[in-house]
Design a protein that fits this description.
This protein has 217 residues and is α+β, with helices and mostly antiparallel strands. Helix content is 47%, strand content 8%. Strand 1, helix 1 and strand 2 form a beta-alpha-beta unit. Helix 1 runs parallel beside helix 3, helix 1 crosses helix 8 and helix 4 runs antiparallel to helix 5. The two termini are 32 Å apart. Bound molecules: glutathione (GSH). The site of glutathione has 8 residues, from helix 4. Glutathione (GSH) binds next to helix 4.
């Protein structure tokens, strides 16, 4: 039994989708942000920085989105290459790439004041990194067509899709705006996944449009 501590339209979103792809029993607890839950000792015991998400597991708490994705993939076959699979190294490399080189600058775009007081410069720099790094990843998909990043739902396509969902919410002209149409290889994968029940169910649960990737807000 897992317990996911979530907040709508935050990094917990991909975990809500991935949990629905498993046969695990789980419950989802909405974090009481207004009540200060992120700063509470109880929540800090699950996530030491008071960030969203955190997953309680039979093995203890697991935190950091990418770590939770890997934890679930290792216990629920089909979400990513198995530990002894030939393409495991490539999968791990691009999972770490996504956490460090995509998710981190995406967070800077949403919280630029945490990096420096000149928020427009922070946003411009982070947006440039996001665009350049998504282009590198997209080219890799075109070159190698990995099975672990195809139209079959799994941890990588849903993790990347969550970020594209957020970035597609920026208005035309915003430096960080990115949509499936900007990504020749990842874009069609996300379009194909949009109607998957795991995506549709979480979009509905979080009060979001069914066009989760293509027209997110
Ligand atoms: N590297 C962390 C980032 C988590 C994170 O920053 N989550 C955001 C929501 S998407 C959050 O907790 N925001 C609330 C805050 O920082 O106060 C992870 O991947 O889990």
């Amino acid at each position: 039994m897992y317990t996911l501590h979530y907040w709508p339209d935050s990094a917990s979103q991909v975990l809500r989708m991935v949990l629905r792809l498993t046969d695990a029993t789980f419950r989802e607890v909405q974090i009481d942000r207004a009540g200060g839950a992120l700063d509470s000792a109880a929540y800090r015991a699950l996530q030491p920085l008071g960030k969203i998400p955190a997953l309680e597991t039979p093995d203890g708490p697991v935190f950091e989105t990418a770590a939770i994705l890997l934890y679930l993939a290792d216990r629920h076959p089909g979400l990513a290459p198995a530990p002894d699979a030939k393409d495991r190294g490539a999968f791990l490399s691009w999972l770490a790439f996504s956490a460090f080189n995509l998710h981190a600058p995406v967070l800077q775009v949403f919280y630029p004041e945490r990096t420096a007081s000149d928020t427009s410069e922070v946003t411009a720099n982070a947006a440039a990194q996001i665009k350049a790094n998504f282009a590198v990843l997209d080219a890799m998909i075109g070159r190698t067509r990995p099975d672990w990043l195809s139209t079959r739902p799994g941890v990588m396509n849903l993790y990347l899709g969550m970020m594209v969902h957020w970035l597609g919410g920026f208005a035309e002209g915003h430096p960080a705006r990115l949509t499936p149409a900007d990504l020749p290889n990842l874009g069609p994968i996300l379009v194909a996944l949009e109607s998957h029940p795991a995506v549709a169910e979480v979009a509905a649960a979080e009060g979001l449009k069914p066009t989760f990737f293509t027209d997110p807000y």
